[in-house]
Specification:
The chain is built from 11 helices and 12 strands. It is α/β, with parallel strands linked by helices. It holds the Pfam family SIR2.
Amino acid sequence: MSCSYADGLSPYQNKGILGLEEKYESGETLRIKCGLLADWIKSSRHVVVHTGAGISTAAGIPDFRGPTGVWTLEQKGLKPEKSISFDDAVPTKTHMALKTLIDNQKVKFIISQNIDGLHLRSGISRQNLAELHGNMFVEQCDKCGRQFIRNFATTSVGKKSLDTVCRSESIGGRPCRGKLHDTILDWEHNLPDNDLALSDLHSSVADLSICLGTTLQIIPSGNLPLYTKKYGGRLVICNLQPTKHDKKADLIINGNVEEIMTNVMKKIGLEIPGYNSENDPTRDPDTSSIIMDWTVPTSRIKEMKVLYKKVCKPTKRKRKTFMYERDRDDDDKNVLNKKNKTRKQSLPIKAENNYPNIVGDKIDKADKTDDDDDIVENKTSKINNIDNVKNEMVKIEEENSND
């Protein structure tokens, strides 16, 4: 359960803003906005979904910062009344809807901050999923780095040794005498390189990023959707509470993610299947099966780097105007041109000094940098007003009728 996971983490005071008030759209507004989101999904070429704890509350797993979240109650000296073990929880309608969207080529990639393993258990393949904070049902070798699916949730947190031997040889790999450890990150750990690399690349290539059940407060995970905006894509935020990036969103839907995804799938014309334990690899008794290998395929990273170079064009900085012009020789001009063409963000995100930092119950805004100008912000395109939503849908219907 999420409260036992939270108890296993090291003491940490700055857990973000807790207990924000939840907002619900009216039935008609929710229906119209979900219809617009469905149209955007159908018309987009590369959709990426960012998921947080809010998509697992329907499975009985409490979130962290909601009105009854684990850390919100902890601040009041209380414990969640309702909780369920990770082993007993099963994927929700939202998890199964995302699996269906991937199977039907409507969604390319899912970036999850959750450690509950419900995306894995829904049947999503590894090449379509990044787990930035770890997975309770996955263990990793400290020598070869390969990851393997477990039949039950780990009880340890913080990459601690599980006193088990690497399973690489048993599933057809090379012999390895490494020891396995859990994959759950503690506060001081860096995000897994391969998962973060794929998340960075997919977020940059995406023309539509959808955030489900997350307040986007934890960095660098919460800042990944901004890469989509940086390269001209749309950002949609579906959450009951306000988020850190609401002002940058093209569409905000305040509602329960289960209801949102049900409406969206109905509009797209796809049914949401129920959870099937036969497609759940954690229920496979054969631990030597090839499907138990959960290692990120490095070939996918190479493919995404190629796609990134084709799709994402470097953004030019605004040229500063000086009171006077300096004489530059040809060599200086060539150096300047090269600098303007280089990418302004590194692939592995180590520090996020250019974005707001969470400090207690306040968000301290960092100084604005030149990179902030790279984020495409067309204020007139934001679809947070219901009249604007209706107008946008009319335009889409007219375009479809003309086609």
